[in-house]
Write a structure and sequence with these properties.
The structure is a single chain. The chain has about 140 residues and is mostly helical. It has 7 helices and 4 strands; from the N terminus they run ααββααβαααβ. The strands form 2 sheets. The chain has a two-stranded antiparallel ribbon with strand order 1-2. Strands 3-4 form a two-stranded parallel ribbon. A hairpin with a 4-residue loop joins β1 and β2. The chain is globular and about 55 Å long. The relative contact order is 0.14.
């Protein structure tokens, strides 16, 4: 399987789509990977940026911080509900098999993990762990 173009399309999404639509360059705001979220505010926009993969860790705090600005303490979220998870779908076994067998070339790993996107959202330690998770096949 070739990932030609897919990695770049994913890692350049903020530049190609988000910034063009909002005028906000999230890369100019600084992101704390250990925090996993940030609130960006300017004169026109207020945006909550979340790292989806650790949504169960501290994102309830993030969502409450985001809505507190507008609603004060009137609304406080107590729990996030999991809905529409692939683990409960008919294709769950196919997804599990896919994740067990997927491989990337060293070029693809470099393209993904050396990108501005990856370096912004993940610490060097996290990037090293992610690189170690995937089999590398050079063909």
């Amino acid at each position: 399987m070739s990932w030609d173009g897919c990695i770049r399309e994913s890692t350049e999404w903020f530049d190609k789509h988000f910034t063009q639509a909002t005028g906000l360059d999230i890369y100019s705001y600084g992101f704390e990977p250990a925090e996993g979220w940030q609130i960006i505010e300017d004169k026109s926009w207020r945006v909550l940026v979340l790292r989806f993969e650790d949504i169960g860790v501290n994102h309830l705090e993030a969502l409450n911080a985001f809505i507190r600005k507008k609603y004060g303490g009137k609304i406080v979220l107590q729990k996030l509900m999991n809905r529409n998870l692939s683990s409960g779908k008919w294709y769950a076994d196919l997804m599990a098999d896919f994740y067990q067998s997927i491989t990337f070339t060293s070029r693809e790993m470099t393209e993904a993990y050396d990108s501005k996107y990856a370096k912004y959202f993940y610490s060097p330690e996290e990037l090293a762990r992610m690189r170690g998770r995937w089999s590398i096949v050079d063909y």
